[in-house]
Every structure is written in structure tokens, then in C-alpha cells.
Amino acid sequence: MRRLRSEQTGLSYLSSGADDAPLVLCLHGFPDIPRTWGPLSERLRDAGYRVASPWLPGYAPSSLEGPFDPATLARTILSFVDELSPSEPIRIVGHDWGAFITQCAMSLQPERFRAAAMLAVPHVLAIEANIERYPRQLGRSAYMGLFQLPFLSDRLVRLRNFRFVERLWEVWSPGYDPGRDYFDELKICLRSSMPAPIRYYRALLSPKVVLAVRRMVGTKPIVVPTIYLHGERDGCIGPEIADGQEKHFSALFEMVKLSDAGHFLHLERPREVNAAILRWFEGH
Question: Which of 5, 37, 172, 209 could, after both became Cys, cross-link 235 (CB 3.0–4.6 A)?
């Protein structure tokens, strides 16, 4: 595993596999780091892929400069794709915010992607439709409202050595503990990055940003073959919020819901998740 830096995009990233192998780009979410893709990266590398896992914009050691609206994030990732694989379409995996960025990037430039895997955050139009049917999701998403209060939320997230972040993991993936070493690395990243990671959420408050997202993902269905995976015990986004999203994909689409898994399902159930992603990529 090598740690590299893209001067073009300001992204630092972990890379494994042969330089001439087919590329898989793995995007983490909040609050997380590229280490989250360790088990998947090993599986993909052994299957003959090259894997690149960047720290997202706003996560040190990547650039902390904004803006952090979804369109800008997607374009940064597309520039990164162009740099690493200028001529060949790639495969992409996204979890949480990484899944949101993935669907935005696929909507903007579908020709750059051969296949995709999205985890834990479904198509944005499915979220909008299902929140009306399942208002309990508003309670799960209350942290997003808190993040709109800059001084209060910035301080709260840092309080007691990022206890707020550990609590999110406990609620979102009940019964799962990534280990003290994992949290230590995550906290080092957040300590160097705040408040950039939660500025992602503040950008969503802008009507201009909401309109731009609708133009990106709501105008036409996604044409990239996509597998979607969701844990049935997800405490961040309920599995029912993903229902019906297949109508927003015009290419092959498959949804897998895993019992006894929460929001960080790729770490909780790596064997099943990694096998499903590899199967999908081998078929496309």
C-alpha cells in the first residue's frame, strides 16, 4: 500500500495493485478515512485490480480548501479519475458521502465509469420520496441540523476527544467497534481537518446547491450499472429509505440488504460485501 498525492486535485490517497491494472476508486464517507477500504482493497488487488482510496476533499492530508457542495466534490473526483485513468472508464465504490458523490459524478459524466457500487446512501430522489413515507428518518438525521450551527457543532464534535464521533459509530452500527487504533487514526484526521468535514452538510442548506443537485441527479436516470448495498440495522439511514430507487437507474441495477449489519456494513460484514462488489465488477 502506497500513499501518494495528486497535485492536480489536492487529494492524497492510498494506492495498491499494479499500475497497469483496471482501476477501482473507493470513496469514504463521514466520519471516516480511507482505511475503511482495507479489506475490500486487499480483495480487489488479489483479483487483479488497482485500487485508489483518497482522503476526500476537506479531510487531511488532502486539501482543506472548499467549497464542499456536491457538484464541486463530484467534479474534483472526476478530475482525479481523468488523472489516474485518462483513457479507460473505471469502476467506483462509494460509502455514505462517497456514495452521494459517486451518484453525482455518474450523473455528470457516465462515460467515465464502467460499473459502480454504492453503500448506505441511496439515490437522492429516493431519499426525498421515502422521508415523506417514513418520517422517523428525520430523527435519525437530526445531527445534520446540528451541523448547521457552526460554533456550537464545531465545539461539540471536538469535545472529550471526539466522543460525538464515537457515539455516531455506536448508533449507526449497533454493536460494532472498529477498535481503538482505528478511532485514533480517524481522530488524528479530524483534528487536522475540522471544520471542513461538517461543512459538507452546511453546503446542503443553500437553495442554489439543492437546485444544482436536482439538475445533476434528477434530470435523467443513471446509466452506469450499479449495485447498492445497505445494512438492515443502519442507524443513520433506515433501509426502507432505499426502497424504490431502482427507477432512477436505467442500466442494470441490483440492491442487496444485509441482515445483522449497520451503516458501516463493509467493515461489519466484509466477506459478503466484498464478494458482492467483486461479483458485480467482474460482470461489468
Answer: 172
